[in-house]
Specification:
about 450 residues, alpha+beta, 4-stranded antiparallel β-sheet, 12 helices
């Protein structure tokens, strides 16, 4: 139920803000707005406020089908317009005003993202400290000399000024941008005991990744922050439960290997497979001051076509947390910066998918969005605002793409009109609209297929 409520509320908010951008600028430009609708189909609720700007008789509607919305304006191309109201028609307005009205919807979504990110920055969010776990053997981080337990003080792209790193989430975002853009990053590390800094270069330009997923961070070697090698919740009947492991057990050794953190322990469990069979190991644990030895045989799970070990328990304690909070101006500027960075990254990923440099599996549809809406809402209102910010940026950027059925397509028409002095011929307008609808349907089909594959594949 929480997933449904969070999804519908978030979707309704983003659509309403988008359409309000069109509506507000249209009214400011002297265009008569006939209807403002959030949702399509049968009107569930409709009302007409008495106090409206002179010349406006807008009907506000909440439609039965929530995946979209529209603002209907007075327009001679869509119906007869009385001569005394022609000056209120959209098509009668100068090119610059028509372009401003069309662009206002996507810009409203981007401004909403700035606001939401700023609210998160001002309120503060609990994030893991930027302390690195033991990197996977042979990964970029391992070859760069990272050993685990180091604290990341500063980081930045090679050749650019480094910034203070407040949390592991900030580092993860930097690594994501670096991996997808093919740019190395420089980390200033210190051991938590001495605080003496040393520089390490992560050569992300050599990664040549196509997808921003967990496998990308595994190849980098830093999928998560440092955690104590402790056992969390244990599923009944799981290999961990059958072996006698209990919540709170601290793992000291696994076979002949000394365990130093949760990441290393997870990797040792994953790799406890030989010739397709799970391999039992002797675990030395500490429980309430007593040292015990237990024999644990993982079960095999298929992951990305490969068998990996699993014990049916949460592995690794919660990482050390820090509250990341910004002042008024800094929080606002960071909101602007994050919106800009996410917008550029979204455009780059779309461009790479078009030319085949990125996988189409990066496209997500309503099922995935609904799932993340529920998960983020369950973590608290701050995480939900971060989710809404990301979707608002995606909606704004998507609508600015030069596809005929989107706002960006109409802006392309106006660019043509501004250059040639003539509007796009009706016959070409119709052909482009059909092509745009077909392309959009293909994108939606791929996104829905990806959703079904993620959940049921």
């Amino acid at each position: 139920m929480l997933t449904v409520i969070a999804f519908l509320f978030g979707l309704g908010l983003l659509i309403a803000v988008h359409e309000y951008g069109h509506y507000r600028v249209a009214v400011a430009c002297g265009v008569k707005v006939l209807r403002f609708s959030v949702g399509f189909g049968f009107p569930l609720v409709r009302w007409q406020p008495k106090a409206q700007k002179h010349g406006q008789t807008t009907e506000f509607v909440l439609g039965a089908f929530p995946l979209g919305g529209y603002v209907r304006m007075l327009d001679e191309r869509e119906g007869p317009v009385a001569p005394e109201e022609r000056h209120l028609a959209f098509n009668a307005k100068p090119l610059r005003l028509r372009a401003a009205i069309v662009a206002a919807g996507p810009l409203a979504n981007l401004l909403l993202a700035v606001l939401l990110y700023s609210v998160v920055n001002w309120s503060g969010v609990q994030e893991a400290k930027a302390v690195l776990a033991s990197p996977m053997s042979g990964s970029l981080a391992d070859r760069a000399g990272i050993r685990g337990g180091e604290w990341v003080q500063r980081a930045g792209f090679a050749g650019e000024a480094a910034d203070d790193i407040r949390s592991f989430e900030s580092l993860r975002w930097l690594m994501t941008r670096g991996a997808l853009d093919g740019r190395d990053i420089v980390l200033t590390l210190s051991a938590r005991s001495d605080g003496v800094g040393r520089e390490v270069v992560l050569p992300l330009a050599t990664l040549q990744t196509r997808d921003a997923d967990t496998q990308m961070f595994r190849r980098i070697g830093l999928p998560g922050p440092w955690t104590k090698p402790e056992i969390g919740d244990v599923l009944p009947g799981s290999p961990a439960a059958l072996a006698g492991l209990k919540q709170g057990d601290l793992v000291l050794r696994l076979g002949n290997q000394t365990v130093v953190d949760g990441q290393q322990l997870r990797e040792l469990i994953r790799s406890s497979v030989q010739a397709g069979q799970a391999v039992a190991s002797n675990w030395r644990i500490e429980r309430q001051g007593q040292v015990l030895d237990l024999a644990v045989r993982p079960e095999i799970k298929i992951e990305n076509g490969q068998g990996v070990g699993r014990i049916g328990a949460y592995v690794g304690a919660m990482p050390a947390m820090v509250t990341v909070r910004h002042g008024p101006l800094e929080g606002l500027w960071n909101g602007v910066t994050r919106t800009w960075e996410v917008s550029l990254l979204t455009l780059r990923m779309m461009g790479r998918m078009v030319v085949g440099e990125a996988s189409l599996t990066n496209l997500s549809g309503p099922l995935t969005i609904a799932d993340y809406a529920g998960k983020s809402a369950s973590l608290g209102w701050v995480q939900y605002l971060i989710f809404l910010s990301l979707i608002s940026v995606s909606l704004g950027v998507l609508n600015l793409l030069p596809l005929p059925v989107l706002d960006g397509g109409h802006l392309m028409y106006y660019l043509w009109e501004g250059i040639t002095g003539k509007s796009v011929p009706e016959v070409w307008m119709e052909r482009l609209q059909r092509g745009g609808v077909a392309l959009l349907m293909i994108m939606m089909s791929i996104a829905l297929f990806n959703d079904v594959t993620r959940f049921f594949g």
